[in-house]
Amino acid sequence: MRHRIHLCAIALTVGLASASFAQDAQLGQSVESLLKYARDSNPEYASMRFDVVAAQARIDPAGALPDPKFRTEWRDITRAGDQNPTLLPGRVGSTRYLLMQDLPWTGKRELKREVATSQADAARGRAEGTWNELASKIKATYAQLYYHGQNRRLNQEILDLMVQLEKVAQARYAGGLAAQQDVIRAQLEQTAMRTELINLDTEHRQLLGKLNALIGRSAAEALAEPEQIRSLPAPECSSFPALEQRAREHNPLLRTEAFQIRAAEKNRELVYKNRYPDFTVGVSPIQYGGSFREWELMLELNIPLQQDSRRAQERESEAMLDAARSRQEQVSKQILADLYENVVGLEASRRTLGLIADSLLPQSELTFRSALAGYESGKVDFATLLDAQKQIRQAKLNQVAAGMNAQMRLAEIERIVGEDL
To answer: How many structural domains are present in the chain?
Structure first.
């Protein structure tokens, strides 16, 4: 029986370890897996969520009554000199007990609660803004990593092609149909491309470290290679008029500023309420010997005579409200300006991708094939063939750069809009 239990425990441990390994192995294959991991593990976003919890915990205390106060007075503790001083209630002249409760002017508690609620909503908006910033960085870095992989594969393909061209040049040189310089130039091109592959590999590793840091992992931990990139939204869904209203409604910064304005408005109302007094009420039984013979009621209020101080506080609250409104206006203009810039950039990248795919790349490939056939037949020189090869390589590099730029523009637009497109 014990052996069976041990075997089951081992099997369970192995199964959990395998599941964890499979999950880690898949991390990085898609941007969705990275975003899910970052939500649970990024320390900056976690700290903002704790700030939200703390702000929400302030709401109930803000609207609560102050704690009641209790006072005891021992009167005539020597019984007119007939006894030694004592604090026993039954042996002093009398003992007065006073229970007091502070009562703010009507409406103050509700306003304090509304101010705290608005501040909690603002904290939630800041947390959402932090997540938007983080998600945008993850999407952009993932796109860079994906297209760096494309670039490395492209350079490797061109390097393999240059190896074949060197063989062609060597064959023509051996037959006396080409100069040795053609072979040397092919080798020089290969060396330059191998150097570029080293640089690309270095950038690739740096991006992996950056991406690990963004999602909350150690920089040196392994990530799976990106397998797919997100498709671009339809042009009608990514136009500026279509996105402007969505940004106004869902952008976390704008929502945070709106909550800050509401908090400033409620705080102004609260400051104006300070023109009216707060109260303290109390009840006081008085003990003589072993019985209570007297009862007293108490009413206390503060007199708001310091008008200069209160007027200054009112001016402060008005200025804070005006400042919050001005910040919202500035943030709104800047957000819409950033949105317009990125929408224009996305459209330019989309058009560039279409132009390269439909015209430049087919033309470059046709030019290269024609140059290769001409070199093999001796109609063109090796320099012309290299120029044709560089044209097709540059066209593919431009395609990679335009695709990466489009993805980074898309990530920025989604950050501004506050949701995925």
So the answer is: 1
Residue 105 and residue 107: Cα distance in Å, rounded? 6
In a domain, 17, yes or no: no
The Cα–Cα gap between 189 and 185 comes to: 6
List pLDDT tens digits, range 354-407. 888 888 888 888 887 887 777 677 776 777 777 777 787 888 888 888 888 888
Q: Are strands 69-75 and 279-288 parallel, antiparallel or unpaired?
A: unpaired
Q: Which residues contact 246 (CB under 8 A, 6 or more apart)?
A: 417, 418, 419
Q: Which of 53-62, 108-117, 149-158, 211-220 has the lowest mean pLDDT?
A: 149-158
Task: Return the biggest CA–CA distance within the chain.
Answer: 138
CA dist., res. 259 & res. 338, Å (int): 22
Q: In this structure, is residue 6 part of a structural domain?
A: no
Q: Order of strands across the sheet with 69-75?
A: 69-75, 94-103, 279-288, 291-301
**Helix pair 382-417, 361-376: axis angle to 10 deg:** 160
SS (H, E, C) 42-84: CHHHHHHHHHHHHHHHCHHHHHCCCCCEEEEEEECCCCCCCCC
Give 182-204 as a DSSP string: HHHHHHHHHHHHHHHHHHHHHHH
- Which domain does 413 fall in, by range? 36-417
CATH number at residue 190: 1.20.1600.10
Residue 394 resides in a domain: yes
Is residue 152 assigned to a domain? yes
Cβ–Cβ < 8 Å for 296, 303: no
